[in-house]
Amino acid sequence: MSHKILLLPGDGIGPEVVAEALKVMQCLEEKFGLAVEIQGAMIGGCAYDACGKPLPDETMHLAQEADAILLGAVGGPQWEHLDISRRPEKGLLGLRSDLGLFANLRPAVCYPALADKSPLNAELVKGLDIMMVRELTGGIYFGTPRGIRTLENGERQGINTLVYNESEIERIGRLAFAIAGTRKGQLVSVDKANVLECTELWRDVMSEISKDYPDVTLQHMYVDNAAMQLVRAPKQFDVMVTTNMFGDILSDCVSVATGSIGMLPSASLDAAGKGLYEPIHGSAPDIACRGIANPLASILSVAMMLRYSLHETKLAEIVEYAVDRVLQNGYRTADIFIEGTTEVGTDEMGDKVVSALHQCTLRRAS
Ligand code: NAD
Question: Is residue 48 among the annotated active site residues?
């Protein structure tokens, strides 16, 4: 059966890094028999320029039909003057919410060859491999009532509401337990149950469902402690699951520890496993069209797509192995360059990964 993949290159360096991810997919088709039907469409600023909308109907239709979507990045200074409803980022937010993508998976992996690029001590991060699972469609970012109102005494008051139903907590919890079951079997659920009743419920639900996953060890941790531990001893973590806002903050915090924003992929999944895969970085207008962007986050997004939506785990491992080989062989884009390594551009980095893939066999990566 052929998997339907939609490519949404977007703006800035988006098209440059997605082109390298496409090379990788084409290599997997030719060498390993991956069956994919690939289509492309517009999103973000380029879509606004072409048809006046950051998320054209045609793109939304193709996204609904696809099994998985690979996105580059959206946005740039040329669209910052637009009304918020027409900005490129609105296209991406619309896609996420219309597709019901409730789970955001953000791996933070520090390749040993890049440990010296981390602001943390290399020994603290060498071999770091955390999967952060963030609830994406609920919590304080969506709860009502919300807004800013003026009280009778003339003072203004800002309001946001942290709200989760049991079913929303259970849904993200079960996904996190299942992922932990395929890794080291250690899940840390992050909350603030000592202060926020909503996360007291979060903690209760996580404990209740843990009974269905006897192979996974569940630990609860307060968010303030989790932030400290991520900086003090990040390698203690395997999988973390948390609310929308805590996940937003903690996933950015841990991403810095890995050395470069150009290395980190992400996935946003719906209840059926369909996913939107994208690097965590933005459109990097400061380096667009210069051929120096790091395409590895986009290539590693393909690996996540293979694992979580296409269920091609071995191919996912092969792509990750190929990226590791290229780094170990000393090839670096400018953002991860260190003395003694060989600097390459976006296109050449993609070619190096494809060459490494050609040297792989299915058995070797298993
Ligand atoms: P950014 O992630 O685009 O760039 C931050 C810094 O990291 C820049 O110095 C950039 O050159 C560098 N960088 C990012 N990706 C890189 C890569 N692959 N290789 C090498 N260096 C890389 O963040 P920003 O500058 O705050 O935002 C730029 C635009 O991107 C804005 O319009 C913003 O709204 C948008 N944005 C989009 C997304 C998305 O599409 N998901 C996410 C974040 C920001």
Answer: no
Beta pairing, strands 331-332 & 342-343: parallel
Q: Is 352 a catalytic residue?
A: no
Note whether 317 and 366 are within 8 A (CB): yes
| Catalytic residue (one of 49, 129, 252, 270) | 252
What is the tens place of the pLDDT at every residue in 275-307?
A: 999 999 999 999 999 999 999 999 999 999 999
Q: Which tokens is 267 given?
A: 């996935």
Among the listed residues 191, 238, 248, 335, the single catalytic one is 248
pLDDT tens per residue, range 207-261 = 999 999 999 999 999 999 999 999 999 999 999 999 999 999 999 899 888 888 8
Contact 217, 185 (CB under 8 A): yes
275-279 and 68-73 beta bridge pairing: parallel
Lowest mean pLDDT among 71-85, 162-176, 249-263, 306-320: 249-263
User: Is 324 an active-site residue?
Assistant: no
- The DSSP annotation for 155-194 comes to -EEEE------HHHHHHHHHHHHHHHHTTTSEEEEEE-TT
Which amino acid appears at position 337 of this protein? Answer: F
Query: In the chain, what are the domains?
Result: 1-102+270-366 (3.40.718.10), 106-259 (3.40.718.10)
